[in-house]
Write a structure and sequence with these properties.
486 residues, Methyltransferase, Cobalt-precorrin-4 Transmethylase, Domain 2, Cobalt-precorrin-4 Transmethylase, domain 1, 5-stranded parallel β-sheet, 18 helices, alpha/beta, Helix Hairpins, 5 domains
Length: 486
């Protein structure tokens, strides 16, 4: 039986002058080839009798699965004809998804593969930019990057994005990048690198889909973002603090000693959220992240786990618990999502050999009491332990208030007071109000209104305690009138 062979040829980055001798010899002795694209300058230098077939303009090969589609077609032709030459721009081993797919698919087949390498686009692009790609340059494909929401590489590394295509894909790519870079971020488009009409276009990021020069030989260059620390850079900063010659205070910290700071920073994030202050939220989220990375660094030093383990664990858990997003499962409502969530969690506990005696197990006792009460009631509601209408919910509050009025011992009064709060939390749950946040907002309003009273007293040359209750109450109402938020 005749051997089946796929010959893959790298066409280099520009004209025939950039072809290897081996590639030229092969291309001038064959009669027909398939090319991923015919929009490459080398084809004008090849013999006229060479029949060139390409995948240009075929919609089925312009999807995100184009690499798999083309690979399947090339392998099919090789099986039918006994052999085929497939040509790709640049080097077959640099940023060429179709070649990766072909090599993976024929690995255990009777089809042999010969690769005639070529110079990649990387050399002339770096030459045009005057940069050395070593040691941090990221290389990726525009079609892949346009298909995701967040760039997978750190902004502290420069990046080359190849195969930039005009139209909708460039717009999608722009939106992805603008989730990590400012709209006005200066970037460069390199057109026709290595050719006489080579052009390096310096533009802001938001204009990359508006260039009139973009074609199949266009590459986007993203310089490393100035002061753009990546998550890994931040980990290195914390590791440096914990190093033998680092900060004495940071080196002394343990999981237990950091506990109060973790709680404090969490509440400060909530405070920033209450203020609706974006700049303050950035700062407080950073402080909270510092605590998380510190704990991960301590665990790394103790060889318990590392940050990669933390991220992998939560990523796998989120994907596993959202089959309606990542697994093709249909869910019609939020209730359906919550039902699946609890069912999946139960299966996870079972697989770990964990058995909970109550569905209320697992609600952290360290949570604020209002939040605990809310979560307890939500769990109970999921199994039907709840009133059918809101009227008995309100009646229960009045009942508990009456029992509090009738309590005749300190112990009884505390018990009944807790029942009143629990009943109020239940009403807030019915109204879809977070009790913890509602009370926090009320606390903020009280502080602001009381501050107004203090300021008014000071303007009168008095201390607040010098005012009568009636005077303070009048100022309280004045504060409410002047500012509805108060």
């Amino acid at each position: 039986m005749e051997n089946k062979v796929i010959v893959i040829v790298g066409l280099g980055p520009a004209g025939a002058n950039n072809l290897t001798r081996e590639a030229w010899d092969w291309l001038t002795q064959i009669d027909e080839l398939w090319a991923r694209t015919r929009y490459h300058p080398v084809f004008s230098d090849l013999p006229e009798n060479l029949v060139v077939n390409s995948f240009d303009g075929e919609d089925e090969y312009l999807s995100s699965d184009y690499g798999k589609d083309i690979a399947e077609k090339i392998i099919q032709i090789a099986q039918q004809q006994g052999g085929i030459t497939y040509a790709v721009p640049g080097s077959p081993f640099i940023a060429e998804e179709t070649v990766r797919e072909i090599l993976a698919r024929v690995a255990d087949s009777d089809i042999a593969v010969r690769v005639i390498d070529g110079m990649s686009f990387l050399e002339p692009v770096c030459s045009a930019l005057g940069i050395d790609p070593h040691p941090k340059l990221v290389l990726t494909d525009s079609l892949y990057l346009a298909s995701i929401e967040i760039p997978f590489f750190p902004a502290s590394s420069p990046a080359l994005i190849s195969n930039l295509r005009p139209g909708m894909e460039a717009s999608d790519l722009k939106l992805t990048l603008m989730n990590a870079y400012p709209d006005e971020y200066p970037v460069k488009l390199i057109h026709n690198a290595g050719l006489p009409d080579e052009l390096v276009e310096e533009i802001p990021l938001y204009e990359i889909d508006q260039s009139l020069h973009t074609g199949l030989m266009t590459t986007l260059y993203l310089p490393a973002r100035e002061n753009g620390r990546a998550f890994e850079d931040f980990q290195q900063i914390i590791a440096r603090l914990r190093a033998p010659d680092g900060c004495p205070w940071d080196r002394e910290q343990t999981h237990m000693s950091l506990r109060p700071y973790l709680l404090q920073e969490s509440y400060e994030v909530l405070e920033a959220l209450d203020e609706e202050n974006a700049d303050h939220l950035v700062e407080e989220l950073g402080d909270l992240l510092l605590q998380i990375v510190l704990h991960a660094q301590i665990a790394t030093e103790n060889q318990d786990f590392n940050m990669t383990d933390v991220i992998a664990d939560v990523s796998e858990k989120i994907v596993r618990r959202h089959p309606h997003v990542f697994g093709g499962q249909d869910v019609e409502s939020v209730d359906g999502v919550l039902h699946n969530w609890e069912q999946i969690k139960a299966e996870e506990r079972k697989s770990k050999g964990e058995e909970r005696k109550s569905m209320l197990d697992g609600i952290p006792t360290a949570l604020p009491a209002l939040t605990q009460a809310d979560q307890i009631q939500q769990r109970a509601q999921r199994v039907g332990f709840d009133w059918k209408t809101i009227d008995p919910v309100i009646a229960k509050i009045h009942e508990e208030l009456q029992e509090l009025k009738e309590a005749d011992t300190p112990e009884r009064k505390q018990s009944e007071a807790g029942d009143v709060l629990f009943a109020v939390v239940n009403l807030l749950r019915w109204l879809e109000i977070d009790p913890e946040m509602a009370l926090r907002e009320t606390n903020v309003r009280f502080r602001e209104r009381f501050g107004y009273i203090e300021s008014a007293a000071a303007r009168q040359g008095k201390q607040v305690e010098d005012l009568s209750f009636e005077e303070m109450d009048a100022l309280w109402e004045e504060a409410k009138t002047k500012n509805r938020r108060l």
